[in-house]
Amino acid sequence: MRLSNNLMYQNSVNKILEGQQGVANAQERVTTGKKYLSTSESPSAYSQAALYTNKIQTNEQYTKNINQLNGRLETEESILQSINTTIQAAQELTIRAGSGAMSDDDLKSIASELSELQKSLVSLMNSQSEDGKYIFSGYQDTTQTYSFNSNTGQYDYQGDQGQHSVTIAQGVNVKSSDNGFSAFEKVNARLNVVDNEGTITGSITAQSTVYVKNQADFDKFHNANFDLDPTATAADNSFQVELVAGVNPGDLDTYVINDGYGNPVTPAVTGEFTGEPIEYAGMEFKLEGTAPGTFEFELEAPHKENVLNTMQNLITSLNSSLAGDELHDALADGLDQLQSASEQVVFTQASLGARMNLVESVTDSNSAIDINNKSSKSNLIEVDMAEAISDLTRHETALQASQATFGRLANLTLFDYL
Structure pTM? Predict the structure, then answer.
């Protein structure tokens, strides 16, 4: 084939243009960091990269959820700690009130301190999040958690038993709050009798009383004998102390413990009645009068009591100038229920801590997954910078060679061969 000057010139120009395009493409890859300049260069790589992009964006939302969740859990943890500290302070005051060396004024002073602690508890239990939602109201988080009912003189829970949750990973939902029902309402009240004065018959007088003195023994008795069947009658949960006159003159009267139907309990419990208090199953009976007669008492049904009402009852009792067994019983109620309330708060804190540990674990897992997703996406469509710079250098060198060759060819004439 004959090579004309025009053909050589055109070939050289084409080489220079190709070189310039190669340099431009290599330079764009270096500048943008993209391995491919258009989807058509590798449709499969772009398709897979799009899947990784979705995963990365989803993980970013999980990260935002985790940050929000951590804030909520840390806020609740701080509030619960403050609540428990306040309850413990109330316990100390209650113990001090039962020291036996307190005047009426001293007891009223303690009641005033308890009232201030109660106000603090009301504020803490009605805490709101940064967006104004009540933390312990469950799904009813626009409703104040606790409010005072002036008709009953008690604090009522206004929320429900719902718990909000936040998704922090695929298939992983974590509770972001605890409702007041679980944290504050599920507190066992002290087991007791319905009426300390009971019901009397015969020659026993109205001054007779029964009080729980040994709570542990009474709790065992109550748990073993209280009939939880909804159809149970009062007699099913009642017992009697019956005084029986001596058979012969000079014989001491005796007592026998009966069930609510007047039948002796099994095994039989009996003894001489000397006028001194009778002790049975953690209870102390002070019976006034003579035989024959019965003193009947009913076991109180197990129930729950929130700490605000426990403190309200304590404050009322301390302001009522109670003394002796009445004061002891009121303080026992308060102390037992404050302890139970504290334990329930601690239980809630433990549950909260477990969730915080889970969040920390999932955060680490999400971080590892995110690194893998970004690495896989990078391998698919992002350029290896060292390789890209080397490629750019190669294209620049080729272009420079084409330009130099073109210059030499452009200056060729026939006279160079003569």
Answer: 0.79
